[in-house]
């Protein structure tokens, strides 16, 4: 699909924890005739949906395969550890990886973090989703390292979270297949980057209104040639206070 092709709708996928509402609202205001289909998908499946042609763009967590996908980083989230409220680390305002050395760290299959980047001991089996991992944390089976937005999304009264110092951060990006940079994708890029509707790099500009030429001010009879900037006609200029001519020195 080339940039000149226009699809009848725009299909946007987003991963849990991302809040696309503000961008969708701007889209609906600017392009009311182009429906936007918004679908939440697990973080681990977003890239496959983009490459398979099932979505035009996605709000995903990095990394993605940059050989086939384009990506514009949008923001970076703080990483936290989710623990039961009676866990020892809750006595501190922040947690270091060494504090979790004796804990089992759960790693859901839909998580983009790698085992090498996580502190503590990995679980023997990986839970399928972040929601499943939260249930295991509540049961006292382990702890969970996630971006802050996911900890808030899965908030429970019996769990809490603390910032995890030295942990890898999670970056959110707008991504799309490099070979399918359509006009609609360009429209959405402009929106997430905060461009105005008339930006030449955003959505195609509306035709500018034709301006009438400014009326030329009429000159008094005889023209203005030879007048000085103070309004005189040569050797004298009027004194603005007395209204009498005064001789130039």
TrEMBL record:
Matching InterPro entries: LysR_subst-bd
Positions with biased composition (Basic and acidic residues): 203-213
LysR substrate-binding domain mapped to chain residues: 23-194
Compositional bias of kind Basic residues: 239-249
Signal sequence region: none
Record's keyword annotation contains Protease: no
Residue numbers spanned by region Disordered: 196-249
Alphabetical keyword list: DNA-binding, Transcription, Transcription regulation
Family assignment from sequence similarity: Belongs to the LysR transcriptional regulatory family.
Name recorded for this polypeptide: LysR family transcriptional regulator substrate-binding protein
Organism of origin: Streptomyces atrovirens
């Amino acid at each position: 699909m080339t940039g000149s092709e226009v699809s009848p709708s725009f299909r946007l996928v987003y991963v849990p924890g991302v809040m696309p509402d503000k961008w969708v609202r701007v889209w609906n205001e600017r392009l009311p005739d182009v429906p936007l289909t918004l679908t939440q998908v697990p973080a681990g499946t977003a890239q496959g949906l983009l490459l398979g042609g099932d979505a035009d763009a996605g709000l995903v967590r990095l990394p993605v395969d940059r050989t086939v996908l384009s990506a514009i980083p949008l923001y970076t989230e703080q990483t936290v550890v989710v623990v039961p409220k009676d866990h020892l680390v809750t006595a501190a305002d922040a947690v270091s990886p060494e504090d979790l050395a004796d804990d089992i760290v759960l790693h859901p299959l839909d998580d983009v973090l790698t085992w090498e980047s996580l502190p503590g001991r990995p679980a023997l089996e990986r839970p399928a989703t972040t929601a499943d991992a939260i249930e295991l944390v509540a049961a006292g089976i382990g702890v969970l390292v996630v971006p802050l937005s996911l900890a808030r999304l899965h908030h429970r009264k019996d769990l809490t979270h603390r910032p995890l110092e030295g942990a890898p951060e999670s970056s959110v990006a707008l991504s799309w297949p490099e070979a399918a940079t359509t006009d609609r994708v360009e429209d959405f890029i402009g929106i997430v980057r905060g461009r105005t509707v008339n930006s030449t790099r955003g959505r195609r500009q509306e035709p500018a209104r034709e301006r009438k030429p400014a009326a030329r001010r009429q000159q008094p009879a005889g023209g203005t040639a030879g007048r000085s900037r103070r309004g005189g006609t040569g050797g004298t200029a009027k004194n603005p206070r007395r209204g009498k001519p005064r001789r130039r020195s």
